[in-house]
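In this supplementary section we document a worked example of the pipeline. Step one takes a protein sequence of length 438 as its only input; no multiple sequence alignment statistics are reported here. Step two produces a three-dimensional model, which step three serialises into structure tokens for compact storage. The input and output of this example are shown verbatim.
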Amino acid sequence: MACRAAFRCIAGCEERHPLTEPVYRCPRCGHLLEVAHDLDALRCRSGEAWRRLFDERDAQGLRASASGVWRKKEWVCPELRDEHVISLGEGGTVMLRAGRLGEDLGLDDLWIKPCGQSHTGSFKDLGMTVLVSMVRQMQAEGRRVRAIACASTGDTSASLAAYAAAAGIPAVVLLPRGKVSVAQLLQPLANGARVLALDTDFDGCMAIVQRLVEEEGLYLANSMNSLRLEGQKTVALEIAQQFGWRVPDVVVVPGGNLGNVSALGAGFDLMDTLGVSSGRPRLVVAQAAAANPLYLAFQRDWAFSPVTAAPTLATAIQIGNPVSVEKAVRALRRYDGVVEQATEEELADAAAIADRAGFFSCPHTAVALAALAKLVARGTVGRRERVVVISTASGLKFAEFKQRYHEGTLPFEVRHGNRPVPLPGDFDAVRRAIDRLA
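The serialised model returned by step three reads:
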């Protein structure tokens, strides 16, 4: 039986929509959509058979696919024809044991999933390969797509620009002016996207891009397009596979527009349903205190209200009205979810602590680490639990953040600053400085 998938309403409306249709909300009720897979077709293989197939593909490495996403194609976008796949080697990232960092946080079994080890330096590549590949198929079937567009706090725009360039499709990105890092701005510029820097925040950019999609015929690349989440859910599959198809006790992810946590939930759901893994992790979303609408909703028994996001060092999650909040709450309810926040000082010091343990943490991953430290201190997360932190982007994109921290120019006192020591070109002076290491 051929594997199939279609869009369906998360509120339960009956209609199904082909994945080649540019639809992002249910035409009947206005709720978000999700990708629904034909479970009967997927059950033609046993859980053991799926594990064996995926393990064999990983063992073949580059001979099968350099992409960790497309090694799981039947579970992602089964009706996409191979000739339309646009891949830049996304996914398939390692799992790093964080022993020393775990000791600092009070954990015996801490792991980091470095999703920033991807082509454009962020987890967004996992979803963008699916979305841009589907647009290629839409074009091949005769549908005109003028351009692919997104609102972004940096990483989505970089990913869209790279994949659209590889596919030869125009890309339009809307960024809040002066609120993304230099590296994040340069990436879409270098890849030839039309970059519009707007005098507003991300939520303002998101409102405009939705109008562009509705009125100007552009195709939406933000995570309210469920195709993105299909690629991102493979992170859950990779985590389980790397632990011998056993799920960890806790998975922590930074939360901005909140597509990632719902994608993780979808991945763990599908593995559980098809008998590929057993058990469910507790999902934790970490937010910056400056942009914390989900944290506030968690404190109010999930009663959500948007906020005006304040400036934060974690610029990629400076979002006050996340479009995927409904999906995120559903996933967190299913997975005994917890939401915690981190202040600017807490996230900055958490990044420095992680870096001193051998990492080079982006500020968003630092939010996750700072929130995790609080949960461990309160006993919400136990010392002996296996914990995975999703590192969402490369720290190399945020060199200015690191520079300001170690120069001591952030608007608060830092605990772990480290400055170069100016010395004359003299052997004895160098020796004396080294002696002080002890």
